[in-house]
Amino acid sequence: MTRELVLVRRGAYHDSVTLMRISRALTEMPGVSAAMVAMATDLNLSVIRDLGFPAPEAGPGDLLIALRAEAPEAAVAEADRLLSTFQQPQTPAEQPPLTTRSALRTSADLVLVSVPGEYAFAEAHDAVQAGLPVMIFSDGVTVGQERWLKELAETKDVLVMGPDCGTAAIAGVGLGFANVLTPGPVGVVAASGTGAQQVTCLLDWAGTGVSHVLGVGGRDLSAEVGGLSTLRALRMLDDDPATELIVLISKPAAPEVARAVQEAPLRTPVVRALLREGGPDLTEATEQALRALKRPVPEWPAWPAWSGRTARHKAIKGLYSGGTLGTEAALVAGQGDFVDFGDDVYTRGRAHPMIDPTLRVEALSRAGDTEVVLMDVVLGHGADPDPAASLAHAVARTPATVVVALIGTEGDPQDLHRQAAAFREAGAAVFTSNAQAARHARSLL
Amino acid sequence: MTLLSAPPRVVTVGAGLLDESLRAQAVPTVPVSWRPPLPGTARALVTVLADPRRQAANELAVRRLTSARPQLVRVRRASEVLDEDTFLHAGPPIEWERASGPMRGALIGAMLLEGRARDERAAERALAAGAVALRPCHEHGAVGPMAGVVSPSMWLFEVRDDEHGGTAYCSLNEGLGKVLRYGAYGPEVLERLRWMDEVLGPALAATLERTGPIDLRSLMAQALQMGDELHNRNRAATSLLLRELAPAVVEAAPDTAAQVLRFVNGNDHFFLNAAMAAAKVSTDAARDIPGSSLVVAMARNGTDFGVQVSGLGGRWFTGPAGVPDGLYLGAYGPGDANPDIGDSTITETSGLGGFAMAAAPAIVRFVGGEVADAVRATRSMYEITLAEHPAYQIPGLGFRGTPVGIDVTLVARTGLLPVVNTGIAGRVAGTGQVGAGLVKPPVEAFTAALLALADEISDPFDDQGPRTSSPQ
């Protein structure tokens, strides 16, 4: 006998990644048919309504537990056990710091901020005020706050990466969503996290490693922000002895900012990747970098599927977790309907689609047999430990034809080859170059 | 060393997964145990944090607070600094109608002491009719424990800040049990007060003329190392003060010296009032610095708990005073307790009292806990304070300075409220002390202060929200 239980815990905060892992663990319990443990944001309330639960009175500061199970109480007990396990990090007798300011009593080199965007300013402010560089993984920080932080950072001579900086790599350490990269001569300055991941994964495949990846946030080159982080990151890489060539992955820039970046006095050669109509795509930019370093350009690995062009295919549907990858694919394909599930409309109060496959699994199930679904799967630290486990299943079941851009390296913990094989077995064509995946999708129409 | 020269040590705040993936790469991390700020404060927090004056203002405020050098310089009659129709009381402003039992009791006692009423009834009528002006101690450079009532004939400690030149006053401590400050006004209470007026006050005044200024900063630093936290435990500090004073008392008042010394020796809390004046003169040094979010006073009148913030002048931000949680004397219980009362929270405001709990393991059971709770209480206060006191140190924490300088932005961010040690007064006028324990300040006093700080600042970002701008 299955029963429903919906609980609200007022003011109990947990981060969305932890809650997603707990939801998943509960769903796997015997006798549980639906489980959702989440903060009661508008989005999550609508998800539980969609799951057929009555939505309780609750706000974004409240914890929501919704269960459909034979013994929901047992599942609640398990949820509590998991919450307490995840809650207590490996902290010794010292009490854990409650703010970044407090944590900075111990010596550190960098602060990584991933709290919800509306609260990110305070933590990033603590870091910059203390003279430390900060990576703001959070999105939803206002452009005014961004400019304020970056102006303060100028006075403190430190780098602000982000906001909405999904990836960075510093001296071999991957931050945020980060692939395992071989050390090498190419430094990357990126306005886009997944754009940087594409370029560095291809470089890694080509046997040419990466020195550092510095993210600057998607708005850095706007007139309001003035490219402060881009210019600083370029100077830092220029001064770095390990960096022989810089790849600058930018978004469309305000003209005066673009000029300032263009005219920055650098000794190190710079290859630019700028996503716009007719501009070089990320794969082409990577190839240019390789040629500039006088290194061979390899074939980019791909695992084509049996399905070919058919009259049935009418349209391309892009289901992307990486905004820049989606933009690139849309430009290359020249048509289609693209959704960026990493946009903050979809991530408020829930984990990023690179971690939480739920929304994309749903979208796959809704796709029709006339559609070619083009999607990215991003590997590396921070990403879903086994994306094929949930997505390949959905790929196998969707009536649509699926093309996957698999962004990862052979060093990534998810095992690039195993992931490729799983998606291919599910019927998808798999490419390590997103641009090639998009061209392939277009060729299927 | 630059950011790029070596693998970084990372402070992580937010998603636990991102911290774990760093640990998986063998990167040392310090994870922040982050929670969203207090409800309704997110916008104000950002505005206040971005106030360009704030950083320097707080640095100045906390430097002034911690560099104050309080000296006990005189003992003098309140009438010399107070006009005759004014009574002072603890906490934010309050009128007779809203005054609690112990506050009324103490005011009645003061009316009787001053000979302004024949009996209790007459005193009540006169007070209700406004025969004397009731003003907060804090508005007259003074502080008073519990009801904190000061009437013109009482004697006051005068404490001067040698560093910044401020002056603060506090009454003389009557002892424990049935005493005016807990709202008792029976014959034995008035008799003791008269003896203090006629014997103790003059003797101490003459004594201080002989000793010259007594350095309270150094005396309090020593007392912390001897197990006092200088709010609920003042035994060491009282002993140290007695040592300083005793020879001069004998010389200055040979006829009454034995009585005076016996009285001081018999009251382990005698020093509290000097500590409070020292705390007041130190926190006053940090007042009125535009843009500063530092708390410069926390005080209760038995009805409201109020806070004042450096950047907001003399404005009070209040919430209802809570009932302390603690141990009760004899047959008294929580039902007999009055809500929190007194200016003695000035000790916590200056990094003593509950903030220095870890220094006073001897009294942790008294406030209902174990030694580990005391250590935890002090450690948690580092989360909401701006500095560690350079002179007031805690031996058990490796001589770490006490947490000092409460910042309302940190209270809002962490949701942690100041730990306050306190005595508990009986609810009914005339009862006296019924216990002692810990009390939780009302959160709304701190959020209201934060919102008021934000109100005074024009939007530092001039934008409306995320995504208002896109690249051209």
What does this structure look like?
Chain A is of the alpha/beta class. The radius of gyration of chain A is 22 Å and the shape is globular. Chain A has helices spanning 16-27, 42-50, 72-87, 100-103, 117-129, 143-156, 193-205, 228-239, 255-262, 282-292, 323-333, 344-347, 358-366, 387-397, 416-425, 434-443, and strands at residues 3-9, 32-39, 63-69, 110-113, 134-136, 160-161, 167-170, 173-176, 183-190, 210-215, 245-250, 270-274, 302-303, 315-320, 337-340, 371-378, 401-407, 429-431. Chain A has three domains: 3-87, Alpha-Beta Plaits (2-Layer Sandwich); 100-292, 3-Layer(aba) Sandwich (Rossmann fold); 302-443, Succinyl-CoA synthetase domains (Rossmann fold, 3-Layer(aba) Sandwich). The longest helix of chain A is centred in the first third of the chain and has 16 residues, at 72-87. The termini of chain A are far apart. In chain A, 38% of the residues lie in helices and 21% in strands. A six-stranded mixed β-sheet of chain A has the order 13-18-17-16-14-15, sandwiched between helices. Chain A has 16 helices and 18 strands. In chain B, 34% of the residues lie in helices and 20% in strands. In chain B, helix 6 crosses helix 8 (235-252). Chain B is of the alpha+beta class and 472 residues long. Chain B has three domains: 3-34, no CATH class; 49-65 and 288-455, v583 fold (Alpha-Beta Complex), CATH 3.90.1700; 68-278, Enterococcus faecalis V583 fold. In chain B, a hairpin with a 2-residue loop joins strand 10 and strand 11. Chain B has helices at residues 16-24, 42-49, 54-67, 101-113, 120-128, 187-211, 216-224, 235-252, 257-265, 272-284, 346-349, 371-381, 408-414, 443-455, and strands at residues 10-13, 29-32, 70-77, 86-89, 133-136, 142-143, 155-161, 167-171, 214-215, 295-301, 304-309, 317-320, 325-328, 341-342, 385-394, 400-406, 420-425, 433-439. In chain B, the strands form six sheets. In chain B, strands 6-8-7-3-9 form a five-stranded mixed β-sheet. A four-stranded antiparallel β-sheet of chain B has the order 12-11-10-14. A three-stranded antiparallel β-sheet of chain B has the order 13-18-17, with no helix packed on it. Chain B is globular. Mean pLDDT of chain B is 93; it is low at 464-472. The chains are: A alpha/beta (445), B alpha+beta (472). At the A-B interface, helix 1, helix 4, strand 4, helix 5 and helix 6 of A face strand 1, helix 1, strand 2, helix 2 and helix 12 of B. Strand 4 of chain A pairs parallel with strand 1 (10-13) of chain B, so a sheet runs across the interface.
